[in-house]
Amino acid sequence: MLGDKAFSLIQELDRSQHGTLPPFNEDAVRQALEEIDSLFQQNVADINHLAEDDALVAGIHLRHAALERNKRCLLAYLYNRLERLRTMRWQLGSVLPSDVRTNLCEPELEWFAQYSSTVARYMRSLGDGQGLDLTVDLKPPKNLYIEVRCLQDYGEFELEEGEVVLLSKDSTHFLPMEHCQHLIRQGVLQHVK
Amino acid sequence: MANFYTSYYPNYFSVEDILASQDRVPCKFEVTVKGLGYLDASSGNEDILPGSKIELPCWMARPLCSSKRLPIVSAQLPVNYRERYREILSADACVVDLQKLGPHFYELGLHLLPITSAPDRPRLAALLTQVLRDRLRPIMDDAQHCSADETSQKIAKLDRLEIRLFRGGQESVRDRERWLDRTAHLLSMAPLLAASNARHKRKRQDS
């Protein structure tokens, strides 16, 4: 049936777990584009003969419906991928994990770099030029210092006052919340009660 | 009828909506469609002849029936929305396996409204809301009380829309428990990483 290739992209998105990105399926995208192109060419040819043969209208309608459907599936595929990518910027920061990077296509990487720098520029401009990191304190903080346990050997971590903490596996620390939030979100530290 | 045709709910990019509108609808062609005989592979003709019956996806059936001049196809309701199944659903909606009937029972139903005959339309619309209303209470009940191992068994018979409601219910119960434990303020790993870590762990255990 027409439009099946483009639809398979949507199924792929639907099957991938919420928030994760499946590899960019360049092959299916290209095939869907080719289908759109051939539908369009056939329609153009039929429209030119419309004056002689009135019965072509039905076919044109049908192909046009298929063309629009293909377009919708492709755009939805790209858009939903970008949405997920954008969520990642806020959850993981400007550096993507390597397994996510390998699943992206070239324009998506470019988009992410641009989006990242736009967000960073905006955050620098806040608070009378002092800058404000909007990705910290997504939940209202209760204390300035929190107790954390280290889940992996991370190495040395320098706090803003110049103090250096060695984060080795299963060690616990009492750190300023502001500085270790990102590490908690990246799964290096665990917040304990 | 034409104003139904370009409505996308909840938006143009909605994955759920695209999935729902892929389901097939039995259609009968009213006019000859030239050069598209390959859609009906069994006929072997070059053109689609009037009177041939093909199951078309809902997204194709809708614009073709609502074409302004004369309709190109006439669509019928899929079996699941016809009288017999309606009787079953109105007898006791809670025991029906909507995963099997749908799994986009409600959303496809909305897409089918424009191609339903005018006197039947309000009845189908009323049926959809009534079915959801009947099933909602047990679903929310299960979402609040069933344990983690029971979940997969409970959602096996639910429509995709109902599964979303169910998950939402479970999530709010969990949030409430965290709040009662006074652990709601604890920071946690990004959900995305948590999911991928769990996957890696499972892989390592398998190997």
TrEMBL record, chain A:
One Pfam family named in its UniProt record: Sld5
Keywords, sorted A to Z: Chromosome, DNA replication, Nucleus
Name of the protein described by the UniProt record: DNA replication complex GINS protein PSF1
Entry-linked SUPFAM superfamilies: GINS helical bundle-like
Location relative to the cell: Chromosome; Nucleus
Subunit structure: Component of the GINS complex.
CDD domains: GINS_A_psf1 (cd11710), GINS_B_Psf1 (cd21696)
Domain GINS subunit, residue spans: 59-126
UniProt superkingdom: Eukaryota
From TrEMBL, chain B:
Chief location category: nucleus
Domain DNA replication complex GINS protein PSF3 N-terminal: from-to ranges: 13-65
The keyword Membrane appears for this protein: no
Residue intervals of the GINS subunit domain: 83-180
PANTHER family membership: DNA REPLICATION COMPLEX GINS PROTEIN PSF3 (PTHR22768:SF0)
Protein name: DNA replication complex GINS protein PSF3
Family note: Belongs to the GINS3/PSF3 family.
GO biological process, one term: mitotic DNA replication initiation
Record flagged with keyword Iron-sulfur: no
Entry-linked CDD domains: GINS_A_psf3, GINS_B_Psf3
Keyword terms, alphabetized: DNA replication, Nucleus
Gene: LOC108682266
Function comment: The GINS complex plays an essential role in the initiation of DNA replication. Required for correct functioning of the GINS complex, a complex that plays an essential role in the initiation of DNA replication, and progression of DNA replication forks. GINS complex is a core component of CDC45-MCM-GINS (CMG) helicase, the molecular machine that unwinds template DNA during replication, and around which the replisome is built.
InterPro entries in the cross-refs: GINS_A (IPR021151), GINS_bundle-like_dom_sf (IPR036224), GINS_Psf3 (IPR010492), GINS_Psf3_sf (IPR038437), PSF3_N (IPR055221)
Subunit and interaction comment: Component of the GINS complex.
Compartments reported by the entry: Nucleus
GO cellular component assignments: GINS complex
